[in-house]
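Sample entry as discussed:
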Amino acid sequence: MKPLLDVLVILDALELEKEGSFAAASAKLFKTPSALSYTVHKLENDLNI
C-alpha cells in the first residue's frame, strides 16, 4: 500500500519554508532547484492545492 504522503516530500517542503527560497533549500537538501520545484508541485497536486 502506498502511503498517502511521502515523509521525505513533506520534509523537503518544510525545508523550503524554513530557508525561504528554492535555491537555499535545494542547496541544503543536495538537490537541484528544479528537482525541489518538481517535488513541491507533486505535493501540491497530492493535496489538491
